């Protein structure tokens, strides 16, 4: 159980939610695990299937407290709320901002700053931790280049220019990814990003990591009442969760890339976990995919201190914290959307 920005997150499995007076009560096999007053809550997010009492659902509907249900792995199931009050206003503001390219650019540049900053931190950490195993001068030069791009991004209010700057930063960062692979170099290498299909072992893992991250972010956005398919940097396209792709930009490197690198460098995966199809596509075996997803779920349980909120949360709640902050910005409760700047 974790309270964050007027939202209560129920992360324990098999917990039943009930009402006692003006309090939400957490029960597991009739044993009370916790009790939280409802009067200051905007929403309750439960990871699990057990459910909530009709009395609690009725109380929350009457008080406009959203009840959000996720699977234990973080996939969005449903968001239950009473009369559409704040939610419809929030989505209308999201749609208006998306239709306005200048407003979209003002939001999108913070996603990009978060991405570049975090990639710069990954590079700096490599120079600190492995100075004898990498080309430190090359890494430092790239770090300096990313800093200069961030200065330009901070002042940019043109979407096309922002995409160009993000592309420059991505090229610079990607040139170093192969050097961050410190083990199993014959079997794991990164020359460029290949998506459909992935053409090497590293790209196969990156594609799966990005898919899992996009699903987690989309669930978090739906959980706070935002439309995951209407973005600011990524524009509307049928079937594409554009806002989820926007928000996950700042988490790609620091969350997904580092996760994949750790699996390789710790030898949790090896060449036997992959096979090549006739088309040239590299595919993970079923056992390897299960091992990958299990490690991903374990990663989500690791604790960190959120750089903006200053509170200790699990990695799995980071997409939810960013979704809450984005919703607060769109409601004009914050002057600016604060990207996730990890260090």
From TrEMBL:
<dbReference type="GO" id="GO:0046872">
    <property type="term" value="F:metal ion binding"/>
</dbReference>
<keyword id="KW-0540">Nuclease</keyword>
<dbReference type="GO" id="GO:0004520">
    <property type="term" value="F:DNA endonuclease activity"/>
</dbReference>
<dbReference type="GO" id="GO:0016787">
    <property type="term" value="F:hydrolase activity"/>
</dbReference>
<dbReference type="GO" id="GO:0003677">
    <property type="term" value="F:DNA binding"/>
</dbReference>
<dbReference type="InterPro" id="IPR042206">
    <property type="entry name" value="CRISPR-assoc_Cas1_C"/>
</dbReference>
<feature type="binding site">
    <location>
        <position position="249"/>
    </location>
    <ligand>
        <name>Mn(2+)</name>
    </ligand>
</feature>
<dbReference type="InterPro" id="IPR002729">
    <property type="entry name" value="CRISPR-assoc_Cas1"/>
</dbReference>
<protein>
    <recommendedName>
        <fullName>CRISPR-associated endonuclease Cas1</fullName>
        <ecNumber>3.1.-.-</ecNumber>
    </recommendedName>
</protein>
<comment type="subunit">
    <text>Homodimer, forms a heterotetramer with a Cas2 homodimer.</text>
</comment>
<keyword id="KW-0460">Magnesium</keyword>
<feature type="binding site">
    <location>
        <position position="234"/>
    </location>
    <ligand>
        <name>Mn(2+)</name>
    </ligand>
</feature>
<keyword id="KW-0464">Manganese</keyword>
<comment type="similarity">
    <text>Belongs to the CRISPR-associated endonuclease Cas1 family.</text>
</comment>
<keyword id="KW-0255">Endonuclease</keyword>
<keyword id="KW-0479">Metal-binding</keyword>
<dbReference type="InterPro" id="IPR019856">
    <property type="entry name" value="CRISPR-assoc_Cas1_DVULG"/>
</dbReference>
<dbReference type="GO" id="GO:0043571">
    <property type="term" value="P:maintenance of CRISPR repeat elements"/>
</dbReference>
<dbReference type="Pfam" id="PF01867">
    <property type="entry name" value="Cas_Cas1"/>
</dbReference>
<feature type="binding site">
    <location>
        <position position="166"/>
    </location>
    <ligand>
        <name>Mn(2+)</name>
    </ligand>
</feature>
<dbReference type="GO" id="GO:0051607">
    <property type="term" value="P:defense response to virus"/>
</dbReference>
<keyword id="KW-0238">DNA-binding</keyword>
<comment type="function">
    <text>CRISPR (clustered regularly interspaced short palindromic repeat), is an adaptive immune system that provides protection against mobile genetic elements (viruses, transposable elements and conjugative plasmids). CRISPR clusters contain spacers, sequences complementary to antecedent mobile elements, and target invading nucleic acids. CRISPR clusters are transcribed and processed into CRISPR RNA (crRNA). Acts as a dsDNA endonuclease. Involved in the integration of spacer DNA into the CRISPR cassette.</text>
</comment>
<dbReference type="InterPro" id="IPR050646">
    <property type="entry name" value="Cas1"/>
</dbReference>
<keyword id="KW-0378">Hydrolase</keyword>
<keyword id="KW-0051">Antiviral defense</keyword>
<dbReference type="InterPro" id="IPR042211">
    <property type="entry name" value="CRISPR-assoc_Cas1_N"/>
</dbReference>
């Amino acid at each position: 159980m974790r309270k964050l920005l007027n939202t209560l997150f129920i992360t324990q499995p098999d917990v039943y939610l009930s009402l006692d007076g003006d309090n939400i009560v957490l029960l597991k096999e009739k044993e009370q695990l916790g009790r939280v007053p409802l009067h200051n809550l905007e929403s309750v997010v439960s990871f699990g299937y057990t459910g909530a009492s009709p009395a609690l659902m009725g109380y929350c509907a009457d008080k406009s407290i959203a009840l959000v249900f996720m699977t234990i792995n973080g996939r969005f199931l449903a968001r239950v709320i009473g009369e559409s009050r704040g939610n419809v206003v929030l989505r209308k503001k999201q749609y208006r901002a998306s239709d306005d390219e200048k407003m979209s650019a003002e939001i999108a540049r913070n996603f990009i700053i978060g991405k570049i900053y975090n990639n710069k931190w990954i590079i700096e950490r490599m120079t600190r931790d492995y100075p004898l195993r990498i080309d430190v001068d090359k890494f430092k030069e790239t770090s300096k280049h990313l800093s200069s791009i961030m200065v330009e991004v901070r002042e940019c209010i043109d979407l096309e220019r922002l995409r160009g700057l993000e592309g420059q930063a991505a090229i610079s960062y990607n040139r170093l990814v192969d050097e961050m692979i410190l083990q199993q170099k014959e079997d794991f290498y990164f020359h460029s990003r290949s998506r459909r299909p992935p053409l090497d072992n590293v790209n196969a893992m990156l594609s799966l990591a990005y898919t899992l991250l996009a699903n987690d972010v989309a669930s978090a956005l739906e959980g706070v009442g935002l439309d995951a398919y209407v973005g600011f940097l990524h524009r509307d396209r049928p079937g594409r969760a554009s806002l989820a792709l926007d928000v996950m930009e700042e988490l790609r490197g620091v969350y997904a890339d580092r996760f994949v690198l750790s699996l390789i460098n710790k030898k949790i995966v090896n060449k036997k976990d992959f096979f090549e199809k006739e088309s040239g596509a590299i595919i993970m075996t079923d056992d390897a995919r299960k091992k990958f997803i299990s490690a991903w779920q374990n990663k989500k349980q690791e604790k960190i201190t959120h750089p903006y909120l200053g509170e200790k949360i699990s990695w799995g709640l980071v997409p939810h914290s960013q979704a809450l902050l984005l919703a607060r910005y769109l409601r004009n409760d914050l002057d600016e959307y604060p990207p996730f700047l990890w260090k």
